[in-house]
Amino acid sequence: MKRTAAELLITVLGAALIAGGFNLFLIPHQLLSGGISGIAMIVGYVTPLNIGMLYLLFNLPVMIWGWVVLGRRFITISVVTVALTSWFMQLFPETSVTQDPLIAAIFGGVIIAIGSGITLRIGGSSGGFDIVGSILTRKSDFPLGMFLFALNGFVVLALAYVQQEWTAALRSMLCIYISGKVVDTIHIRHIKVTLFIITKNKDALLEKMLRLPRGVTLIKAEGAFSHHESDMLMTVTTRYELAELTKIIRDTDPNAFVNIVETVGVLGQFRRGNVQ
Hints:
This protein is 62% helix and 11% strand. It is of the alpha+beta class. It contains 10 helices and 4 strands, in the order H-H-H-H-H-H-H-H-E-H-E-E-H-E. Helix 1 crosses helix 4, helix 2 (35-46) runs parallel beside helix 7 (144-163) and helix 9 (202-209) runs antiparallel to helix 10. It has 2 domains: 2-186, no CATH class; 192-262, Alpha-Beta Plaits. The chain has a 4-stranded antiparallel sheet.
């Protein structure tokens, strides 16, 4: 109960920070953040449509896709974050706290990244390309950073084309770069980890873990001191899925011993069925 309340508070705080970064720093200077929010801003700059509502609308197809492919917990937190961000954008005035566009790009990027980063830390996202990236890395192991950079680069080029000048586009690129660095400091995206789980509730835990699109290896283990036999489960997952997986372990076997180590690399295909 306390954990759920803390996660809800973090979700609300993250959404408020993202909305504040948009309305108080970027939008007044017609700058962009990365991803789907940047696309919503471009459309909002050239039409009378509300950017907050566009942000919600453009995220809907991605979140529906994520609901089908990803875990419900990840998407539920993401949906709540996007909805709250859109709502906060209706509450916060579109008034810049600084007249310097460069300062707005820097501090706007930092504030938005903090909001996105703390949301990622509890196992959700702020929607957009983060969901797309999480879906793609479940099926193949490729340099996601370059993919997201290309998508964000396309958004920045679109702004330059719309405004017919590069100054705002370059400031937006600075904002996106700073945001990425800050988010990576708070939460390293798509880093793989290996979990070694020693449990006395193997069958119930296996039943729940096998619902995830990851393989699980069952290893017979023996305590070196007690010589008692026990079961150890090993699985490789991503940082995105780690919060959901640890919740499953806590709920199923609170006394399980879990060792989580960062994985340098994975050979072979990274999906369910490849770990036997």
